[in-house]
Structures are given as C-alpha cells and as structure tokens.
C-alpha cells in the first residue's frame, strides 16, 4: 500500500517530481498581519515617548539621551519606552526573518509542467501512489502557479533540450514507456533495488 514514504522515495529518485506548494497568498497574509501588528506597536511606542517627554517626572527627561536610564525604567512596573521597545524588537525580528524567507522562497523556480504531470500520474497509478492521499491532500499540486521545484533543472539552454524534456519524453512515456516492465516501486527503498 502506498504512503508518504513511497512518495518521498519516488520524489528523491525522480528529482523533477520534488514539487511543493509555495503558499503565496498565505505567506503574504501572514506578512501583512505581522506588519499591521508592528504598525500599531510603533504608534503605541510613539505615544509613550510623547507622554514621557511631557511628564512632570524628571527621571524620564534622560530617556532620549541615555539607554542606561531607559533600561532602568523597566523596573518601575509600568509600561515604558523600554518595555514597549522589547516587545517590538522580538516581533520586528520575526517579521524581518519572515520577509527574507519569503523573498528566498520566491526565487525557487517553478517546476516544468511535465514534472507535475509525471507526479500526478504516479499518484494515480495502482503500482504507484494508488490514490493514497486524502481529498484535500490529493489537490496539493493543482495550483501550478503556486508550486516550486526543489530539484528543478536550471533554465533550459536551448530549444532542443526543452522539446525533448517537456514534449518528447512525456509523449514516449504515454505511448510506449508505460508498457515497459520494470521493478515495482515498492521494491525501491531510498534508491536501492532489493
């Protein structure tokens, strides 16, 4: 019976099939929420700064000039610039990290269209995936514009290579290759036949 282990082995053995969702809309939505949260925190910090600047408390007058005094204010038990700054710092680091990760994710190339077809065909074949994925999971590769390929060949160098890889090989496989007898995939574990 097929399972995720067999799917992982197939993807490892056939690098072009290592296609994953980028989750563009979900990543962007999370970035937008993080940004909105930071905008509100920034406004709160500005308000605290203005309140402390106009305060009759003389200890706050040193805050704009001394990080030492600002840091000591955290011991006062009230929300100060320093406590708000600490709250913002962690969220800002997470936001910046998420931005850079998403930027790097967007640079991963999309898979060639024929590799998605090969993957879907394997998932549907009785000797391959045999429809083992549940309804939602089976649709993971349906939004092709949202896919990325971890093992995608570098940009095609010429039209002949593109034609062979994306047209001729899939045509051969549909026409004659599917009739060729080979070792059942269940006998292939981590690339070894036994």
Itemize the secondary structure elements and their pairings.
Layout lengths: L3 H10 L5 E3 L2 H30 L13 H6 L8 H27 L5 H12 L10 H4 L8 E3 L9 H17 L12 E2 L2 E2 L1
Task: Give the helix level as a range of percent.
Answer: 40-55%
Which shape, going by the Cα principal axes? elongated
Low-confidence stretches: 185-194
The amount of beta strand, in percent, is: 5-15%
Largest sheet: 2 strands, antiparallel
- Overall pLDDT confidence: 82
- The SSE string, one letter per element, is HEHHHHHEHEE
Strand order of the largest sheet: 1-2
Query: Treating each run of at least 4 consecutive H or I residues as one helix, how many helices?
Result: 7
Separation of the first and last Cα atoms: 17 Å
Which structural class should the secondary elements be placed in?
A: mainly alpha
E-strand count: 4
Tell me the Rg in angstroms.
27 Å
Short characterization:
By secondary structure, the chain is mostly helical.
Would you write up a description of this structure?
This protein is mainly alpha-helical and 194 residues long. Helix content is 55%, strand content 5%. It has seven helices and four strands; from the N terminus they run H-E-H-H-H-H-H-E-H-E-E. The strands form two sheets. Strands 1-2 form a two-stranded antiparallel sheet. Strand 3 and strand 4 form a beta hairpin.
């Amino acid at each position: 019976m097929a399972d995720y282990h067999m799917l992982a082995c197939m993807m490892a053995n056939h690098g072009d099939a290592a296609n994953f969702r980028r989750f563009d809309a979900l990543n962007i939505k999370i970035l937008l929420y993080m940004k909105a949260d930071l905008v509100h925190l920034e406004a709160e910090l500005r308000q605290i700064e203005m309140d402390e600047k106009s305060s009759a408390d003389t200890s706050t007058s040193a805050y704009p000039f001394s990080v030492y005094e600002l840091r000591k204010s955290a011991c006062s038990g009230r929300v100060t610039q320093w406590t708000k700054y600490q709250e913002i710092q962690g969220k800002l680091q997470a936001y910046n990290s998420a931005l850079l990760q998403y930027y790097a994710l967007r640079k991963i190339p999309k898979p060639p269209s024929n590799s998605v077809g090969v993957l879907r065909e394997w998932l549907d074949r009785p000797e391959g995936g045999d429809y083992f994925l549940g309804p939602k999971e089976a649709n993971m590769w349906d939004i092709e514009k949202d896919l990325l390929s971890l093992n995608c060949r570098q940009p095609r160098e010429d039209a002949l290579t593109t034609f062979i890889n994306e047209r001729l090989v899939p045509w051969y496989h549909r026409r004659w290759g599917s009739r060729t007898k080979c070792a059942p995939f269940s006998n292939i574990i981590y690339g070894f036949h036994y």
